[in-house]
């Protein structure tokens, strides 16, 4: 179990080194200079996602009481939130860069594609509410019907999140994967969250479409392996293949559970798209950092429960 000061110090050093290596800088805007440096802002944004803090306000009260020695120029909460939203793209870059530091990445044979639902408001509430026209109704096996966003993730067999993206909840897995794999094959400077391209992916039946799989292989250079929708004996997978797919699903459920439970993805209710974008990336970042730290300490990568001593 790591002490809080040690954990924060290692996280800050890692973030600061990545910012310097990749020449990341704070976005320019009119007005007075920000009180926090980029590395300090990113460190606090990532650390504040722990479920130990029931909300962003609870985290900031904790920071003002206990972290003033480490961050003496801590600004007002509203200024910190504005800075966090302005640096959404930089948080995405740091989250993906933390995944690139994983050990044994040259031995990986595949990555796992999967999607999860993230609610932003109760589906039974009347009226448009916040994010009207952006978030909509969808269905997820974890929470059934919901109002919010559909998040696609690329996961390594050890649990690192190498890339992610989100859309309206009603968007189908294959449409989201089309954009995701396209951005991996042809990167955009404005969207860094998909991460780096990878040749082989494993996914569930929601991504099964022979024309699309051939298209992804030809145009995005990505082979997406799935179980077929066809249940005929000729195409029915072998018991060994089904057992292996069940093992893959366990990794997916573990990673999804960490994001929803350990980092509050299931309970945060964001009111703006920039806020959701920044907060989603800020949850992926500590997830990858904790996986890396666990491997460094000789622990299972997804053993988060007793990693940090509050």
Automatic annotation (TrEMBL):
Q: Which InterPro entries match?
A: Transposase_11 (IPR002559)
- Signal sequence region: none
Q: Name one GO molecular function term.
A: DNA binding
**BP GO annotations:** DNA transposition
Organism superkingdom: Bacteria
Any coiled-coil regions, as ranges: none
Write one Pfam family the protein is assigned to: DDE_Tnp_1
Which part of the chain is the Transposase IS4-like domain?
111-283
Name of the molecule in the record: Transposase IS4 family protein
Q: Which organism is it from?
A: Ktedonobacter racemifer DSM 44963
């Amino acid at each position: 179990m790591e002490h809080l000061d040690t954990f924060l110090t290692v996280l800050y050093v890692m973030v600061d080194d990545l910012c310097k290596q990749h020449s990341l800088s704070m976005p320019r805007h009119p007005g007075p200079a920000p009180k926090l440096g980029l590395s300090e802002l990113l460190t606090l944004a990532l650390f504040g996602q722990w479920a130990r803090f029931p909300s962003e306000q609870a985290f900031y009260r904790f920071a003002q009481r206990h972290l003033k020695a480490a961050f003496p120029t801590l600004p007002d909460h509203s200024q910190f939130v504005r800075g966090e939203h302005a640096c959404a793209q930089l948080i995405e870059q740091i989250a993906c860069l933390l995944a690139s530091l994983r050990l044994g990445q040259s031995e990986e044979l595949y990555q796992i594609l999967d999607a999860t639902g993230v609610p932003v408001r109760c589906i039974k509430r009347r009226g448009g509410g916040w994010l009207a026209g952006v978030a909509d109704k969808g269905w997820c096996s974890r929470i059934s019907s919901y109002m919010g966003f559909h998040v696609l993730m690329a996961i390594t067999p050890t649990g690192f999140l190498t890339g992610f993206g989100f859309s309206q909840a009603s968007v189908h897995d294959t449409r989201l994967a089309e954009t995701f794999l396209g951005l991996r094959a042809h990167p955009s400077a404005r969207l860094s969250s998909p991460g780096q391209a990878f040749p082989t992916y494993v996914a569930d039946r929601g991504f099964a479409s022979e024309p699309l799989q051939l298209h992804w292989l030809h145009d995005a250079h990505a082979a997406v392996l799935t179980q077929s929708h066809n249940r005929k004996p000729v195409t029915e997978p072998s018991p060994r293949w089904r057992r292996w797919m069940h093992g893959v699903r366990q990794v997916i459920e573990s990673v999804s559970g960490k994001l929803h439970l350990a980092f509050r993805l299931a309970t945060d209710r964001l009111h703006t798209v920039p806020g959701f974008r920044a907060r989603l990336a800020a949850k992926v970042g500590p997830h990858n950092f904790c996986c890396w730290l666990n491997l460094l300490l000789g622990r299972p990568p997804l053993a988060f429960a007793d990693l940090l001593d509050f």
